[in-house]
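// run 5 | inverse folding | seed 20
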């Protein structure tokens, strides 16, 4: 008789890649997009430590703003807090290729990469080429905080101004979908959720 015992894979290295450029300064409700991304970044090390994984971090726009090597165990969350605390949105255009290059430099073996950015501006910032470079080597999740104002704009029909605003909202939604479909085509996963549930959705993607 042969018995095989399976256990969850351990000693993985999820990498959190945070875009700190202009799009991260957009206010979604009462806080900038970056704040919701940082909250999710703090949730993942807590989960990873229980799963036996080590979490790494890269934050960049036109320059690297924070870098943390693979960290696990009880000290991982404290190290992540120290690395994230100084981060603020920079009013510059992003350089996704720089962020992708730093991630590729950070880990060599296949890992889960969670790229925090904006799907609304991805078509203009060159996120897709950077995502392709990452998806070749790693399992990629692109996580974007949804802007509740877009849905409100798209629903307006009260007068001519509302109709024009609704058209702008629909155009933004169409542009976003035009980014999500190519991401799925290269094997990447897109996570989009409002700020109040964003961290939970990103955590679910990591657990999946």
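// decoded
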């Amino acid at each position: 008789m042969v018995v095989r015992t399976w256990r969850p894979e351990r000693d993985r290295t999820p990498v959190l890649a945070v875009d700190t450029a202009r799009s991260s300064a957009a206010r979604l409700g009462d806080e900038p997009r970056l704040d919701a991304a940082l909250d999710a970044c703090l949730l993942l090390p807590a989960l990873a430590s229980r799963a036996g994984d080590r979490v790494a971090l890269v934050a960049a726009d036109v320059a690297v703003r924070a870098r943390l090597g693979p960290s696990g165990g009880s000290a991982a969350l404290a190290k992540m807090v120290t690395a994230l605390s100084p981060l603020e949105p920079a009013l510059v255009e992003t350089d996704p290729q720089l962020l992708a290059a730093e991630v590729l430099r950070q880990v060599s073996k296949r890992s889960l990469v969670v790229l925090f950015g904006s799907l609304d501006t991805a078509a203009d910032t060159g996120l897709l080429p950077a995502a392709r470079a990452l998806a070749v080597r790693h399992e990629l999740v692109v996580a974007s905080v949804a802007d509740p104002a877009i849905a409100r704009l798209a629903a307006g029909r009260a007068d001519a101004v509302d109709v024009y605003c609704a058209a702008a909202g629909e155009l933004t939604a169409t542009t976003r979908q035009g980014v999500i479909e190519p991401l799925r085509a290269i094997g990447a996963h897109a996570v989009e959720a409002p700020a109040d549930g964003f961290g939970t959705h990103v955590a679910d993607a990591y657990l999946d």
